[in-house]
Amino acid sequence: MQGLNPFTRGQEPGRPAPVRHAPMRPAPQAKAAAPRRDPAPSRLAYRLNRMMLRPLIRRLVRIGLPAFLAAMVAGIWLSDDTRRANLSSSIDGLVDRVQHREAFMVHGMEIEGASEVVDKGLRAMLPVDLPASSFEIDLEKLRERVLKLDAVEAVELRIQPGGILSAVVTERVPAVLWRHARGIELLDKTGHRVASATSRDVRSDLPIIAGEGANRAATEALALIDAAGPILPRLRGLERVGERRWDVVLDRGQRIKLPEDGALRAFENVIATDRANDMLKRDITVIDLREQSRPVVQIGLDAQNAIRRARGQQEIGPDGKPIDPATDPAGKNKTGSSAKKTG
């Protein structure tokens, strides 16, 4: 039966067992609902995030601010004179020890292609006495100073292994002598000054040009000298007139006046005419080609008197005046004309 306890001993049969009630569980109480957090950022956080999206602001924060702080700390540290002096002396000593290491020392100098005068001048231009550190020798500035020498056309400077300063010099080759009011100078083929000369005999093998501005037209002068050809042994030089044209001076006082434009072509025509007719072997003093359409030839005194004698006219003297036969001793006119011709 329901409620009977069959396992009881010493009790009356059929008596129901006492009912034990299970303890009551407390009813679950509802928790208080927590306030829901708003996921949107605050206004300040939003503005800061928007600012950090700008590249400039990010660079300022990541680079500018640390650099400013480092500079401020360094400035505060260097504001003390003693610390600044100690730092400067330490850096100078370190730089000096590095620069004067054996690997950077220059012990000697080798010069190739230079004459004795240029060699001495180049060695005198070294900014320091050897041996010296290679950091104390500015090769570019030294090269600019060497190129200021008139006789130097080009120079190559370099420091070779073993501490040798090598200088390969290309000197200007004298091509012509230039006589002017201040003396005589040697010029190269471009008209650049090479050196001074005390007299014409210093380089008698070179042609000579004269006149102001002749150095600026040295290239044209050399072209005229090359075109002289068969009359080159008779060539005494070229004279610049008015800094615009040339006069070719030959022996026996002959002179060829060339035009300002087309001087080489006009001179070649004279050479061709001389080859065909021996024009320059005659008694001609001046060939004026300044106006090429109307060339003018001036003959010598002997030729003029020969023509006057053929015409039955009175002979003239070196001054251009007629000679009175009554007062002229025999042979004086002839002697005077011969002297004119020889001069």
TrEMBL record:
Pfam families in the record: FtsQ_DivIB_C
Primary subcellular site in the record, as a coarse category: membrane
Keywords noted in UniProt: Cell cycle, Cell division, Cell inner membrane, Cell membrane, Membrane, Transmembrane, Transmembrane helix
Superkingdom of the source species: Bacteria
InterPro entries per UniProt: Cell_div_FtsQ/DivIB_C, FtsQ, FtsQ_C_sf, POTRA
GO process terms (BP): cell septum assembly; FtsZ-dependent cytokinesis
GO cellular component labels: cell division site; plasma membrane
Bilayer topology: Single-pass type II membrane protein
Subcellular location: Cell inner membrane; Membrane
Stated family: Belongs to the FtsQ/DivIB family. FtsQ subfamily.
Role: Essential cell division protein.
Name under which the protein is recorded: Cell division protein FtsQ
Organism: Paracoccus laeviglucosivorans
